[in-house]
Fold this protein.
Amino acid sequence: MPLELLEAGVPEGEEKEFLWTLNFGPQHPATHTTLRLILTLDGETVVKAVPEIGYLHSGFEKLGEDLDYNQYVTVVDRMNYISPFYNEIAWHHTVEKLMGLELTPRCKYLRTLLGELSRISDHLLCVGAAALDLGALTAFLYGFYQRELLYDIFETASGQRFHMSYTRVGGLAFDVDERFLRQVRDFIKGFPKAHADIVRLLNRNRIFIDRTRGVGVLSKEDAINMSATGPIARASGVVRDLRKDEPYLAYKDFDFKVVCANEGDCFARYLVRMDEMMESLKIAHQAIENLPAGPVNVDGDSKAVLPDQTAIYHSIESLIQHFELVMLNRRWTTPHEEVYGAVEAPNGELGFYVVADGSGVPYRARTRPPSYLHFQLFPYLIVGHQLSDVVAVLGSLNIIAAELDR
Amino acid sequence: MSEPAYEAKLKERFGADGFTTSQFRDNRRVVVKPDRLYAFLECLKGECSFDMLAELTAVDYLNYPDARDRFGVVYVLLNTKTGERVFVKTYLNEPELTLPSAFPLWKGADWLEREVYDMYGIVFDGHPDLRRILMPEEFTSYPLRKDYPLRGRGERHNFPVITRAES
């Protein structure tokens, strides 16, 4: 059915006869996930591209209206599954803003640390997969080895490699241990070398540069007008990073730079991501070396956090508190308000718009997914380029279909 | 909290009773009537230089305690130079579920408006290509409305089955 709609946008007249339609996806190795493009081509030049999405739509937002503030974190994890922890940060950042909770310093540092590690993991995948699509397999493998180490760290922290579900309202599920700290320190020590390897493989690689430089150029005006955020906007010269502009968690305490470029092409986006990884590593290094002591959860008097397991068995107050939060008709009391909270996720501004009606379940849990707004740039970026550039542009946008469709 | 500069401009242009403001945490809201929405957005974009539409979403207030209107539509505007945000909100009631499209002002509104249309059935007048984006074209209801059940209305069972021989 959508093919009929395509007809409307194709130029009229005799020219039309030379155009042909190519269905790209929804299952194609270079789309990485399920997204579909209907390309109209003149020879090998793309005249028009119509993205068709929704293949992975599973009603996360509807589900968010049924699960409570802690339960929904497991669903949030599955949006951008490349860096799940950042989704958790975003979700609980908004919920805590709604409830007016101020986190403990240790929790802030740990969330920042794990968030930056997941940013590295996200950028490694994006850079690796973008290079893989252009034929450079090695960088992808180097990147994945580092991601494997990161998964080990996440597993040590939370018990889950992939979908950590580690944050809770007002803190974390549990504190980290010595082994975690050791693993993070080892990673911080070893990562610069792996990063330098990828840089050596790609930065001056003739084929990679020819395929990406000048391809899919996004101007600064368009980036702002079309709601681009994150590395994509920064590669076009938009100097905006929510970590600096609207500091949340512990970002105020750390010394790091916002990486920007002016070209706005695929190569600039690649360079921004590569340099951002080193900045993230810098933040992670500062966070681990200055990790404050103390509890990871806010004070029990706030009635927002689940008490410690031993406390539940040994004190009546904690037992009551535990019951209050797990019983379906009790849970949290929230203000009759709505709030939007946004964080700088690896892909861009990830926001949640939460409407609370006083109960422990959000009335509305809207996600502002960066991938969704970035994918709508695609038809504008690809027009006039070759068919083989489709994968280069797609790879540089880092579209995660699970986040795109939710 | 002191009044932001854009609010003074809006007052000057539309009069003090043209809109109401409220604040929760750092979210500063401007509530306007749907028929004047476009003029407000235009003024905010042009004179107050809110150059990015960061977010556009809707809320169905069907079961919300003390709610008077059925739908609320929220525009989150961002000034990329100063980092200032403003939340423009408008309320809609059936059967008049039509708003002017913000696409002429921000191209980023394209898919955001399509999603709101898809999920709530709110029509954006002047949108270049308003059709369903996440749900299939033949879907008949609006899934994020509060009167739509969590488990659906049996649409999944009625999806057409295409066998390999037919395809």
Remarks:
- Chain A touches chain B through 49 residues (CB under 8 Å).
- Residues 105-133 of chain A form the longest helix (29 residues).
- Residues 1-8 of chain A have pLDDT under 50 and may be disordered.
- The two ends of chain A are 23 Å apart (CA to CA).
